[in-house]
Amino acid sequence: MEENSTKITDEQMAAFLEGNLSTEEMEMMLCALCDSPELRSVLSIAERVDEDLEENTQLYSILPISRMAAKSKGHLCDLQCEEWILAKRGMAADHASLSEQALQNRWLRDKGTPLHHMGRLLEANGLQVSRRYDATLDDIKDALKTKSDIIVVVDNAVLVGKGMREDDFHAVTVISTSDATIRIFDPAVGTPYEECMASHFMKAWKVSSNYMVVVNASDFTYDPTPINVDNVSYPDDLIDLREAIAENTQEVWASARMADGWSYGPVRDDKRKEHPDLVPYSRLSEGEKEYNRMLADTTIKIVRKFGFDLVKSRDTETYHILMHRLLHSDQEYRCSQCGTVVFKANKYCAECGRRLDETDFL
User: Fold this and answer.
1) Which pLDDT belongs to residue 292?
2) What is the pLDDT of residue 244?
3) What is the pLDDT of residues 62-110, one digit of tens each?
4) Which of 309, 302, 308 has its CA nearest to residue 133?
5) What's the chain's average pLDDT?
6) Residue 177 β-bridge partners
7) What is the DSSP pairing of strand 333-334 with strand 341-342?
8) Of 307 and 276, which is predicted with more confidence?
9) CA distances (Å), 246 to each of 27, 79, 234, 250, 304, in order?
10) Residue 329 has pLDDT above 60, yes or no
11) Are 243 and 284 in contact (CB under 8 A)?
12) How big is the CA angle at 175 (ends 173 and 178), to the nearest 5 degrees?
């Protein structure tokens, strides 16, 4: 790659494809694309990969688990919310210590806190934390009734009434609700409490798939809320993978049990550490096999719901294109029309758009 393109990291390329670069990073990316035909070619292949994967994800929304809550100065909005909750509960901790703990555990990154790591500092201080997507305003009201604390992720531009979605993810703490307004602690503002219109709040909250972190009161009742994957599907060629995962689940469980001193017995006996399911997968009842299949099925679906995908590498065009580029990166050719560097994996010239043919690779 040419000199400017080396400044582009994999993370920046992914952020560019998702539209999540800062203004400065976007300028750097555009300059690198202008200067490097190879980088433009790599981008073209990446876009084709995204298009291939998106064909199978159009029926369901992707949950933004890797997005960053980062509106406040220093990208610390979630840390400030957690710090505020600790202080509210009489568990105040030194800000510098909390920051260091979050950084060391990678709960806090350079550009904010990934949604799935929100609440980790509270957990580390012994508080009961649960996370859920697709929550509702009633869920917030119910949590407030039990004196739980609530952190939500909103689009800050929509929250303040700009009316235009900017994917400006921001963590705030909900204090109280009414039909017309939502009272929040907003670390970006710095004042103790802010009120926003309920209509703005709901629109702003929707951007994060209604993500909510609940910090339970001491007398909480556990109410499991698994992510809904009912509308997520996967290709038939992953059914074999589901069966392999289901069978391996039995092997993992049985190995752990045996390592703990358990052995086979016709009925479960906790005192003697005997269990009737300590048998090969093929000997399990159909009910037990179906339970393992359900776990495997949910695992594959949740991977897709989080925006990832499973590709059988050696059987895909994308795999062969990328492997060819890696193994033959030193073989450069020129587009016969404009002279831009091209590779045999290219179908079109990244500069002039001409469809390439064999004469370009002589």
Assistant:
1) 95
2) 95
3) 888 778 887 767 788 999 999 999 999 998 788 899 999 999 999 998 8
4) 302
5) 81
6) 182
7) antiparallel
8) 276
9) 47, 38, 16, 7, 18
10) no
11) no
12) 125
309 contacts: CB under 8 Å, gap ≥ 6: 53, 56, 57, 303
Number of H helices, E strands in the chain: 12, 12
Q: Measured between alpha carbons, how far is 214 from 212 in angstroms, rounded to an integer?
A: 6
Q: What is the pTM of this model?
A: 0.68
- Measured distance CA(57)–CA(231) in Å, rounded: 10
Closest-CA residue to 346 (of 6, 4, 43): 43
**pLDDT at res. 235:** 82
Quick check: 8 and 284 in contact, CB under 8 A?
A: no
- As beta bridge partners, residue 55 has none
R_g (Cα) of the chain, nearest Å = 26
pLDDT for 319 equals 61
Strand partners, 275: 264
Q: Which residue in this structure is represented by tokens 């495997």? A: 296
What pLDDT, in 10s, does the model give residues 19-74? 666 677 777 777 777 777 767 766 666 665 555 555 554 556 788 877 888 776 77
DSSP for residue 266: S
Q: With 90 as the cut, is the pLDDT of residue 301 above it?
A: yes
User: Helix, strand or coil for residue 307?
Assistant: coil
Q: Check if the beta carbon of residue 169 is closer than 8 Å to that of residue 153.
A: yes
- Sequence length of the chain is 362
Distance CA 318, CA 51 (A): 11
Sign of CA dihedral 311, 314, 320, 326: positive
Distance CA 252, CA 259 (A): 11
> Residue 51 has what pLDDT?
55
**Tokens read off for 344:** 């045999």
For residue 237, what are the contacts with CB-CB under 8 A and spacing of at least 6? 312
Structure tokens that stand for 213 in this block: 């972190």
**Coil, helix or strand at residue 145:** helix
298, 294, 266: which is closest to 279 by C-alpha? 266
Joined together, the tokens standing for residue 202 give 């709901």
For residue 270, the model assigns a pLDDT of 94
- Report d(CA 331, CA 346) in Å as an integer: 12
